[in-house]
């Protein structure tokens, strides 16, 4: 039995985009923690200025073969901070789950 996968319609694409965006900017901590717990990859935080202070602007995990992994999937170093307006060199910190 073959399974046929059709291209999503406009409404479905918009819905999927909203889901990815929410896990990229807002719920990134939840997504990164799930990846960390499931795969054991280290957590990393992208630091930035927000509201007059230094904050973790985005959270992701580091796969063993380099780069980062977040709601976008595998992300290379040079593009990691682009959605947030950050460019290399990034201010990165190792995070711990508690």
Annotate the secondary structure layout:
Elements lengths: L9 H15 L3 H12 L3 E8 L2 E9 L6 E3 L2 E3 L16 E4 L3
Antiparallel strand pairs: 1-2, 1-5, 3-4
Beta-strand fraction estimate: 25-35%
- Work out the number of β strands: 5
**Quick one: biggest sheet?**
3 strands, antiparallel
Low-confidence stretches: none
Overall form:
globular
> How does the helix and strand content classify structurally?
alpha+beta
C-alpha-based Rg, rounded: 15 Å
Explain what the structure shows.
The protein is α+β, with helices and mostly antiparallel strands and 98 residues long. It is built from two helices and five strands. The protein has helices at residues 10-24, 28-39; strands spanning 43-50, 53-61, 68-70, 73-75, 92-95. The strands form two sheets. The protein has a three-stranded antiparallel beta sheet. Strand 3 (68-70) and strand 4 (73-75) form a beta hairpin. The longest helix has 15 residues, at 10-24. The protein is globular. The model has no long low-confidence stretch (mean pLDDT 91).
């Amino acid at each position: 039995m073959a399974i046929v996968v059709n291209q999503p319609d406009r409404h479905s694409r918009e819905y999927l985009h909203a889901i990815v965006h929410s896990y990229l900017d807002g719920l990134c901590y939840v997504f990164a923690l799930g990846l960390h717990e499931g795969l054991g990859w280290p957590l990393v935080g992208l630091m930035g200025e927000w509201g007059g202070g230094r904050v973790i602007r985005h959270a992701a995990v580091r796969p063993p073969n380099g780069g980062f992994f977040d709601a976008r999937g595998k992300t290379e170093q040079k593009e990691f901070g682009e959605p947030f307006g950050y460019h290399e060199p990034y201010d990165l910190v190792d995070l711990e789950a508690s």
